[in-house]
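Notebook entry, structure prediction.
Reason for the run: the old model in the group folder had no record of what sequence produced it. Starting over properly, with the input documented here first.
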Amino acid sequence: MRSKNLHYVQHTVDITQGDDPDANWAEGIIQVDKVLSEELGRTIRNGNQFRLVGYGANLKGFAGSDDLDIGFAGTAAVQFCPVTKNSVAAHQGLYRQWLKQKSLSGTVGAYVRYDDFEVGWDGANELSPSRNSQIYTTGMGDTLEEDVVIYGSSASGGYVSLETYYNNLNPIALTSRTAFGSIIKTAKFEDVFPGQRTLIMPTSFTSQTETSTLPDNYHGGIANGDITWLPSGNHLSHMTGTLFFYFKGVSYHAATIPPTNPDELRMTITLVYEGWSSLAPTPNKRLTNKSASKTLRGKR
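New structure, fully documented this time:
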């Protein structure tokens, strides 16, 4: 069997040790399609489903960090939108509306390059202004553009989410009742658009302080952060190239005592893909002369 060519997407961020274990010490957007486009030297569209086969994160020291002695541990998380019938239909619906508006403005065609339909994560985590696509949600006469994102409650003049768009257009059916008005059974779901899913990646780069020596020294150092590989022949698909990540760390200080010299480490999130495929609706294929003649003969 022919082996597959894997594509590595890496996102790096510097993290300063915080004093609140409940807070995100780092968070932001990973735009997978942009990283892949930079790697391959061609446009990889945001509107794809990406087939993930491995993921992981690691921490390390780096030259120029503010301080590094005992380091710290924590958990990185990457959130994604699952590929389901409803999430794909939501993306296709807003994509068609966006494309029609681009057509009316005359900004589509063979000579318009790089204008991809790109969506942010939510209203607080959009793509850069030069990348996030906008749409006039109410159509003709609408003078307020909204940025297109995946999750969150839509706000006029701010952003419109695939989640709100699809759930509002497809409300779930009312519960069935008996002849006396009693509910037979409630639905197992509240909305038709899928909620976000989270991949968890524990990682550490830390040591222990030995106070019996003078001066203190450090021992028992440990670093971990392996890649988790999915079983052979399996993959996890996420919708669009837009992901959200965050990191929560373990602080050795009480929440009321901020560290005087917080350590700073560099975190790298690694995502491994075997490929991707378009979310765009498949156009109807025209019948060839040969197949059309067969169809006509079959109807006689």
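Summary: The longest helix spans residues 85-104.
The old model has been moved to the deprecated folder.
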